[in-house]
Design brief:
Blueprint lengths: L1 E2 L2 H15 L3 H21 L6 E5 L5 E2 L4 E9 L5 E9 L5 E2 L2 E6 L4 E8 L5 E13 L5 E8 L3 E5 L8 H13 L10 E8 L11 H5 L5 E7 L4 E7 L7 E2 L2 E2 H18 L3 E7 L3 E6 L6 H9 L11 H10 L6 E5 L4 H8 L3 H7 L1 E7 L3 H7 L4 H26 L2 E6 L4 H14 L4
Parallel strand pairs: 3-11, 14-17, 14-19, 19-20, 20-21
Antiparallel strand pairs: 1-10, 2-4, 4-8, 5-7, 5-9, 6-8, 9-10, 9-11, 12-13, 15-16, 17-18
Length: about 425
């Protein structure tokens, strides 16, 4: 049973009656009258347990984008039901305007719409649907909570998709560019043409030249249908926040843009995520549907407060195929973590694949190193310079092992990574 604000107002009105007839019996009779009215009002309230509720299906939505859920409420009682309903969800579902007024005649039903703006990835479940039915006198009512199943699937936001049209334009420009003159890794035969001054003599096709009056050279073009393997680090370093965004989310954004571009280029895109163990594995192949599968696999990933086991992840990479691939390691360029974990596992990986390490750099380091306002800021600047120097030295070590290092801010990492991919593809280095 619930009471409304009218009950204390009635009791206060009894104080005015006591001024007219001050006695203990007057106060007792007035309190008894209010109690009787409340009891009658409760008896006249329809039972909220007899309401029938059904929630409509919810489609997946990207993190931060609004959507709505519809709840159908039917009154199966024989009395008119007035009151309020609260459609509760977990806080990260971002439910807004989820309190609704109810006024249902017997047999009527109503559709109630609640806006959801999720702030976290994964499955966001609904909580209880609470109904408070008020009696005809407006003094008291009944309140019941219903369990109505509901689940919102929240996918990664993919903010970098705004850069996809410009990267696709570069890809089309790359496809339409003249064939390369010299054959290299990741190139395939394109056509024959007459020799012109400046052509490499190694490209001369002597058999075709023997059948022609002119010297003929072979031309090559970047090979298509290559293999791209994205490896996402979900260990403790991915839990760090850069500009209040987890490193893991920023790395996902870069991975999605590269996957979308590589799929459009006709390349095979695979995905692997893990820390001490493999958390997600996607073999999308060359079917052009890599992006939806990657988005679905990333939705449930969360940072794990443990060190990454690069030996295990490297074994998982090798188990996904011996075909040479572009392996992109999306991890933090933390000198200690890289030196003790990644470096021992890199040589066998670099022997079989082209390896790229993409890291989210914290711009606060550059900002700290530029401050010289007081003694504290000078010490902070010195510490920032030391960290930047260690990162630069670690990048040099990785480069000496044949690893391409891309260390960029979260906003610029997706573009830098896709531009590097286009450069490798254009030069036939994949």
């Amino acid at each position: 049973m619930t009471l409304t604000g009218r009950v204390p107002l009635l009791l206060l009105l009894g104080v005015a009656v006591l001024f007219l007839r001050p006695s203990g019996s007057t106060a007792a009779w007035w309190a008894l009258a209010v109690l009787v009215l409340v009891a009658v009002d409760v008896l006249l309230v329809p039972d909220p347990r007899r309401l029938v509720m059904e929630r409509g299906p919810l489609s997946a939505v990207r993190q931060g984008e609004p959507t709505a859920t519809e709840l159908v409420v039917a009154n199966t009682t024989t009395r008119r039901l007035r009151g309020a309903l609260r459609d509760a969800w977990v806080p990260t579902a971002g439910a807004a305007a989820n309190r609704h007024r109810l006024d249902l005649a017997p047999g009527d039903q109503v559709r109630l719409r609640t806006t959801l703006t999720p702030t976290r990835r994964g499955d966001r479940p609904s909580d209880r649907v609470t109904v408070r039915a008020i009696g005809p006198l407006g003094l008291a009512g009944r309140q019941r909570a219903h369990r109505v199943a509901g689940r919102l699937r929240v996918l990664p936001p993919f903010h970098s998709r705004k850069h996809l049209p410009s990267r696709l334009a570069k890809l089309r420009e790359l496809d339409g560019r003249a064939a390369v003159r010299v054959r290299g890794q990741g190139t395939e035969f394109d056509s024959l043409r007459d020799y012109v001054f400046g052509d490499d003599v190694r490209s001369i096709d002597w058999r075709a030249t023997a059948r022609s009056r002119n010297v003929v050279v072979r031309t090559w073009q970047p090979e298509r249908h290559r293999r791209v393997l994205l490896v996402l680090d979900t260990s403790r370093t991915s839990a760090g926040r850069v500009d209040d965004i987890p490193r893991l989310d920023s790395a996902m954004d870069a991975a999605l843009l590269l996957a979308a571009l590589a799929s459009r280029a006709g390349d095979s895109v695979d995905f692997l995520a893990g820390d001490r163990q493999v958390r997600a594995r996607v073999r999308a192949g060359a079917r052009g549907d890599a992006l939806p599968q990657l988005v679905e696999a990333m939705a449930d990933l969360e940072p794990v407060l443990a060190e990454v086991d690069w030996a295990r992840l490297t074994s998982a990479v090798m188990a996904m195929g011996r075909q040479p691939a572009l392996v992109v390691l999306l991890t933090a360029l933390e000198p200690a973590a890289v030196a003790h974990g990644l470096l021992p596992a890199l040589p066998p990986l670099a022997r079989h694949h082209r390896v790229v390490l993409a890291s989210v750099r914290d711009p606060e380091l550059e900002r700290m190193s530029a401050r010289r306002d007081d003694a504290a800021s000078v010490y902070a600047a010195a510490a920032a310079e030391q960290v930047l120097g260690e990162r630069a030295r670690m990048a040099e070590v990785l480069t000496s092992l044949g690893v391409d290092v891309i260390d960029s801010d979260a906003d610029r990492l997706p573009v830098a990574l896709t531009d590097h991919y286009l450069m490798l593809k254009g030069r036939g280095l994949l």
